[in-house]
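Repro:
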Amino acid sequence: MKYLLDTHIVLWWWVDDRKLPKEHAKLIERSERSGTSVGLSAISLWEIAKLVERGRFKLARSIDDSLEQLETSALITVLPLSGRVAIESTRLGARFHADPIDQIIAATARCHGLTLLTVDAQIIESGVVAVL
């Protein structure tokens, strides 16, 4: 595993959205072809559920089925919110913005030595996590 998907990246990949950068799509496809999983922070599952609950994202299937599909996908490895990740999220420094979900996602990438696939300008500009 080399990459961790930010929540918006997995959503765009999932629904084949044109917003998914071509470079990210190619990396995900290459991982899928090679049988190499990509990481997804467990907090992203919660974030997806909240987006659906608030009507900000629509799914073709129920949220229960959709999250189960992600969790059992051969491509996706869901990485837990561990004590190590929680502590690392407090060590991102003042350059990283205050969104706790993004802090957990960035900390997950750092703890597992993964490159975060994101287009979130605040995360990219912080320089505290490897991004593509």
